[in-house]
Amino acid sequence: MANLDAGEVITVTTDPKRVETSDISSSKSVIETVNGSHRFEIKGYSLAKGMGAGKYISSDIFTVGGYDWAIYFYPDGKNPEDSSAYVSVFIALASEGTDVRALFELTLVDQTGGKKHKVHSHFHRALESGPYTLKGYKRFFRRPNLENSEFLKDNCLLLECTVGVVKSRMERPKQYSITLPPSDMGKCFKDLLDNEIGCDIVFKVGDEKFNAHKLVLAARSPVFRAQFFGLVGNPNMDTVVVEDVEPSIFKAMLLYIYSDSLPDVHEILGASSSCSFAIMVQHLLAAADRFGLDRLRLLCESKLCDEITIETVPTTLSLAEQHRCEQLKSACLKFAAANLNAVMHSEGFRYLEESCPSLLSELLKTIASVDDTSGLPVSKKRSSSSVFAFDLAGDRGMQAEAVNPNGRRVRRRL
């Protein structure tokens, strides 16, 4: 109750459902292991015997979970009272002044390949105050049994130690969420090119000129780096004449150099151009190979794999052969083998015969490979309209003939 005025009293009631609760904080403890392994080979085991109890052979120090470790092998055992009847194996924490909790597994490897390894696993409490706190097995293996086992081969033992360092971390919910925009570095460099800001080199390509920046070009292309800043390069040159490259293709290459992305064909050629995307990419691949732009070459190779058609496969296959694009070449050969009759009657096939006659024999091998893996009888592997023989002797002036499935010899017509 609340006394508002003399002689006037009112009662205030509160609905518990309407009471706002305070925010609840949260956290999470995550306990996990950081694992690592080390292989320790002991050659000349017989020479190690007789060192005396308590004396060991140590592996090199290895690091797991931010801590240093080592494997100790005692050929005559760690305890004198065992009278050298056992070999002992220990894992040592080699880091200074640290407490660590870890899993470890010591394995004597079966060297016959039978995978009958001798494994000891242990999960122990904190290893206190290194360095060289030991945990392991005083009686790891009876020595006479070891020396007559598959674990000893050519007087050599092989030990493996896996350490799993137990670590804990605290995860708390983020009190903020900042959305990071995508990188705009490519856009910024492209703006420099588009606006010709600070350009110091002019390329004359056909009837067109392109302004650019030597440092950007040198950073992206080993060919330009050598041309401008190499031992025989000229850093003072201000004009370069580029031959055997179409201006539109050189412009596309420049746009890639600055933006690190494949340009739009309409941006380069204009909407009214009759040049197809595949043709532009073919020329761009050749330019990329010429100027050492390996990533651009692979981008073009990938795009051309998606653009393989009856009309484009002859020229694309020839291009792949000339510029050592093995993945593109393989894709073209498989496509041509699967569409052989149509490809042979295409306009580009004559160009393929003239430019790369060696590819015809590779096409035959691909056809044979497809037939061998098809699982069909030879008589059913191809329809009666398929043609199997090529003008492999065309460069010697001989006329090509083919054999149809009915056994008649026919001349191939394109």
Question: Which descriptors apply to this entry?
Answer:
414 residues, Apoptosis, Tumor Necrosis Factor Receptor Associated Protein 2, Chain A, Potassium Channel Kv1.1, Chain A, four-stranded antiparallel sheet, 16 strands, disordered C terminus
Strand share of the residues? Answer: 15-25%
Note the total helix count: 14
Shape: elongated
Q: Structural class of the secondary structure composition?
A: alpha+beta
The gyration radius over C-alpha positions equals 38 Å
Q: Which sequence of SSEs, written as H and E, runs from N to C?
A: EEEHEEEEEEEHEHEEHHEHHHHHHHHHEE
Strand and helix layout:
Layout: E1 2-5, E2 8-10, E3 28-43, H1 45-48, E4 57-58, E5 62-64, E6 67-74, E7 86-93, E8 102-108, E9 118-123, E10 133-142, H2 143-147, E11 156-171, H3 185-195, E12 201-205, E13 208-212, H4 214-220, H5 222-229, E14 239-242, H6 247-259, H7 265-269, H8 277-290, H9 294-306, H10 313-322, H11 326-338, H12 340-344, H13 348-355, H14 358-374, E15 402-403, E16 409-410
Parallel strand pairs: 12-14
Antiparallel strand pairs: 1-2, 3-11, 4-6, 5-6, 6-7, 7-10, 8-9, 8-11, 12-13, 15-16
Helix pairs in contact: 3-6, 4-5, 6-8, 8-9, 9-11, 10-11, 10-13, 11-14
